Structure to design on (713 residues):
C-alpha cells in the first residue's frame, strides 16, 4: 500500500485508523476531564456524541461498535458479580430485595400515571414506558473500583437490586409484547419458567464445579483468563436462550465464579485491566454515538415527551434510593451511592424501547405504521439516557469519594512500616504459590513492598544467575497483582543463616518458606530449614505446602493448641488467616478450646467485614486425629505450632504431625509459628486488642502467677 492508496473520508473506514482514534479518545478523555473534575464516564459518552453519526460523523456506529459495546456491558455486570463481597451480599440480600422492589414499583406507579394523564398514551404504551423507567444500567460502576469502594454494602445492595428490577422489567416487557402480538399463552409462561430454572441451575451449580476443576488442573494465568471469558459469554448466551438479557447471564457467572477468583490475584488483575482499558470504554463511547442531540430542536411535543421522561426516570430513582436509605438505615453517603449507581439508564432501557418501537399495531391513513412506542418516545429515550448517565456519573463520583475518605482509619505509616513479609526463593516450582500466599495475607497497602530473597552460594559460580532468575520470576508474579517487591541477594553458605541475617537487617515481621521434609532424626518434623529458623529468630514463620491455588479454597480449617492465645504473635497470625479467608472468599473453621475460642471471637468482633466463622472444640493435640477427619477436599489446613520452651509448645504435635499431615496429603497445608518476645520492642497496637500488652507478657512480670499459667487447664 502506497501513500496515494490511503484516502480519508468520513465516517472513517480504515480499521486501523478507527481503532487508533478510539484508543486516543480512551487515553485523553480522562486526562483532560480530570482537571475539570468531570467523571471520565461522562467524558467517554460525550466523546461518542461528538464523534458519532449524529454530530461530526467521524466514526460510524457499525457492527464493530455493537460487538465491543455488547462485550463492554457484559463485562460491567460480570465485574459487578465477581467484585461483590459474597458474605456482605448474603447479609444484605434482604436489603437488596427491598431496594429492588422499590426501584421497580415506584417508577412503574409514577410512570404509568404520568404517561396516562400527562402524555395521554394508551394503557399498554404507558405500562411499557413505565417498565422502561424501572430499568437501570450500572454505567457508573467502574467509578467504585477506582475509589476502592466496590465492596461497600451500598454498592452490593444496588447491584442486587439492579438484577432484581431488570429481571422483573424484562418479564413485564415479555408479557406486554406477548399480549400485543397475541402470543401470550399459559404454555408460553410454563416453558419460560422451565428455561429460567434450568439456566439458573446450570450457571450457579454446574459452572463452579467445572471452573474449580479447570483451575486446579491448569494454573497458567493466561489459560485461566481465557477460560473465565468463555464462561462469561457462554452464560450470557444461556440467558438469552432462556428468554432473558445476556447481561443477567454475565452477572450470574460473576456470582458463580466469585469464590474462585481471589480479590488480589493475577487473574483478577487481568480481568479488570482488559475490561477497564478496552471493552467498557468502547461500550460508553457506543452509548454516546446513539444519542441524537438534535431532538431538542425538533418541536414542542418532542421536548415535552423528553422532559417528562427524564424527570420521571430521575425522580423515581431518587425516591427509591431515599426509601431504601430510610428503610435499611443506610448513611447519607451510602444513600447517595445507591441513587448514583441506580439512576443511569442505557442497555435495558434501549432494549425495552426498541421492542415497543418495533411492535406495529396498525397503519395510519397515509400508510405510516402505528407503533406501540412512537418516534417522540424513541427520541425522548435518548435524551433521558444522556441526562441519567451524566447525573449518575457525577453523583457516584461524589459518593465514592466520600465513602473512600470515611473508610480511611488508623495510622497508615505505622501499618506500612510494621508489616514486612519475606519470601526466600530457591525452588522455581513453588515461587508462584509462595508469592500468592504472601499477596493474600498482606494487610499493608500495595505500595509497601514484599521482600524476596535469594541466598547465593559464593562458591558455586552459577548460583547468582539462578538466584536472579528466581527473583525476576517473583517480580512478575507480584507485578501482575499491582504489588512491588524488593529483590534481595545474599551470599551465604547456609540458606537458613542467610534468611536469619536478612530478617534482622530489614526488620522483617513474617517469613514464608516452602515445606522441607525431615531428613535427619535430629531435625524437627518440618525439616532442617524450619527447625533452624524457629530456634534462631522470633519473627512469625509460615511453612507452606501448596497443593492447589488458594482461589479454589472453600474452607480454611485451623487447629490451635491450648494456651496459644497467650502468645505475643497470636493475634497477628489470626489477622493473616482472616485476610487469606477474605481474599479467597472462604469460610473459617477453628478447632480450639474454650479459652482460645473466646479470644478468637474477640478478634473477629474487631472486623467490620465479617467472614463466616465456625468454632469447634479441641482440647489439645491428643484430639487432632479425630478432628482431622472432618477436613474436606478443597480445604486449606492450618496448624498453629509453638516453639520449644514457649507456653503453647506441646511435644505431641511433632509426634502426630507426620500421620496427621498424611491424612490430608491432598490438601494445601500451612504451619504457623507465631511471633515471640524478640519482637517486643516493636509491639504494635494495631494487632493488640484494647492496645494492651500481651497477657503472657504481663503474667511473666508476676512470678507468683507463672506457675498458674503453666498448669492452667
Amino acid at each position: 500500500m502506497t501513500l496515494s492508496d490511503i484516502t480519508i473520508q468520513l465516517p472513517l473506514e480504515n480499521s486501523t485508523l478507527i481503532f487508533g482514534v478510539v484508543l486516543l479518545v480512551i487515553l485523553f478523555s480522562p486526562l483532560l476531564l480530570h482537571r475539570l473534575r468531570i467523571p471520565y464516564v461522562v467524558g467517554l459518552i460525550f466523546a461518542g456524541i461528538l464523534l458519532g453519526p449524529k454530530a461530526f460523523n467521524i466514526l460510524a456506529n457499525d457492527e464493530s461498535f455493537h460487538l465491543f459495546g455488547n462485550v463492554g456491558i457484559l463485562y460491567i455486570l460480570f465485574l459487578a458479580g465477581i467484585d461483590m463481597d459474597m458474605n456482605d451480599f448474603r447479609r444484605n440480600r434482604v436489603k437488596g430485595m427491598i431496594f429492588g422492589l422499590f426501584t421497580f414499583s415506584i417508577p412503574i406507579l409514577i410512570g404509568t400515571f404520568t404517561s396516562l394523564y400527562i402524555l395521554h398514551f394508551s394503557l399498554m404504551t404507558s405500562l411499557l414506558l413505565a417498565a422502561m423507567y424501572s430499568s437501570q444500567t450500572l454505567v457508573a460502576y467502574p467509578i467504585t473500583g477506582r475509589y476502592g469502594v466496590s465492596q461497600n454494602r451500598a454498592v452490593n445492595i444496588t447491584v442486587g437490586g439492579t438484577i432484581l428490577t431488570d429481571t422483573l422489567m424484562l418479564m413485564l416487557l415479555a408479557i406486554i409484547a406477548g399480549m400485543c402480538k397475541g402470543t401470550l399463552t399459559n404454555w408460553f409462561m410454563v416453558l419460560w419458567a422451565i428455561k429460567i430454572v434450568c439456566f439458573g441451575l446450570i450457571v450457579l451449580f454446574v459452572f463452579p464445579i467445572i471452573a474449580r476443576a479447570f483451575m486446579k488442573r491448569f494454573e497458567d494465568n493466561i489459560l485461566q483468563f481465557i477460560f473465565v471469558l468463555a464462561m462469561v459469554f457462554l452464560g450470557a448466551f444461556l440467558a438469552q436462550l432462556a428468554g432473558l438479557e445476556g447481561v443477567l447471564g454475565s452477572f450470574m457467572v460473576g456470582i458463580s465464579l466469585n469464590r474462585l477468583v481471589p480479590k488480589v490475584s493475577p487473574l483478577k488483575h487481568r480481568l479488570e485491566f482488559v475490561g477497564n482499558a478496552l471493552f467498557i470504554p468502547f461500550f460508553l463511547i457506543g452509548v454516546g454515538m446513539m444519542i441524537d442531540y438534535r431532538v431538542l430542536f425538533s418541536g414542542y411535543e418532542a421536548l415535552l415527551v423528553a422532559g417528562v421522561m427524564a424527570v420521571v426516570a430521575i425522580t423515581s430513582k431518587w425516591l427509591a434510593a431515599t426509601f431504601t436509605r430510610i428503610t435499611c438505615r443506610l448513611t447519607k453517603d451510602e444513600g447517595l451511592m445507591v441513587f448514583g449507581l441506580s439512576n443511569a439508564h442505557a442497555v435495558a432501557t434501549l432494549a425495552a424501547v426498541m421492542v415497543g418501537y418495533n411492535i406495529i399495531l396498525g397503519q395510519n391513513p397515509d400508510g405510516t405504521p402505528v407503533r406501540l412506542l412512537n418516534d417522540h418516545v424513541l427520541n425522548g429515550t435518548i435524551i433521558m439516557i444522556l441526562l441519567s448517565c451524566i447525573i449518575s456519573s457525577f453523583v457516584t463520583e461524589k459518593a465514592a469519594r466520600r465513602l473512600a475518605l470515611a473508610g480511611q482509619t488508623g495510622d497508615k505509616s505505622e501499618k506500612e512500616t510494621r508489616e514486612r513479609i519475606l519470601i526466600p526463593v530457591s525452588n522455581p516450582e513453588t515461587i508462584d504459590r509462595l508469592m500468592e500466599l504472601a499477596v493474600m495475607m498482606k494487610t499493608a497497602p500495595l505500595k509497601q513492598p514484599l521482600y524476596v530473597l535469594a541466598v547465593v552460594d559464593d562458591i558455586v559460580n552459577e548460583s547468582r544467575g539462578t538466584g536472579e532468575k528466581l527473583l525476576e520470576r517473583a517480580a512478575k508474579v507480584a507485578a501482575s497483582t499491582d504489588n512491588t517487591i524488593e529483590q534481595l541477594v545474599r551470599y551465604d553458605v547456609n540458606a537458613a543463616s542467610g534468611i536469619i541475617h536478612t530478617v534482622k537487617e530489614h526488620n522483617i515481621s513474617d517469613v514464608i518458606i516452602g515445606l522441607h521434609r525431615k531428613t535427619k532424626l535430629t531435625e524437627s518434623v518440618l525439616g532442617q530449614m524450619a527447625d533452624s529458623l524457629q530456634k534462631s529468630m522470633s519473627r512469625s514463620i509460615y511453612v507452606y505446602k501448596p497443593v492447589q491455588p488458594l482461589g479454589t479454597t472453600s474452607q480454611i480449617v485451623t487447629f490451635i493448641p491450648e494456651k496459644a492465645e497467650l502468645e505475643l504473635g497470636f493475634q497477628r497470625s489470626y489477622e493473616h488467616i482472616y485476610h487469606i479467608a477474605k481474599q479467597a472468599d472462604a469460610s473459617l473453621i477453628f478447632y480450639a478450646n474454650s479459652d482460645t475460642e473466646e479470644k478468637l471471637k474477640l478478634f473477629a468482633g474487631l472486623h467490620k467485614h465479617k467472614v463466616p466463622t465456625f468454632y469447634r472444640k479441641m482440647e489439645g493435640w491428643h484430639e487432632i486425629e479425630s478432628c482431622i477427619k472432618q477436613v474436606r477436599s478443597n480445604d486449606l489446613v492450618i496448624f498453629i505450632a509453638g516453639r520449644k520452651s514457649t507456653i503453647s509448645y506441646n511435644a505431641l504435635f511433632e509426634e502426630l504431625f507426620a500421620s496427621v499431615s498424611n491424612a490430608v496429603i491432598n490438601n494445601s497445608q500451612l504451619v504457623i509459628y507465631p511471633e515471640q518476645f524478640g519482637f517486643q520492642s516493636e509491639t504494635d497496637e494495631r494487632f493488640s486488642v484494647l492496645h494492651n500488652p500481651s497477657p503472657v507478657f504481663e503474667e511473666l512480670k508476676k512470678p507468683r502467677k507463672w506457675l498458674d499459667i503453666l498448669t492452667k487447664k
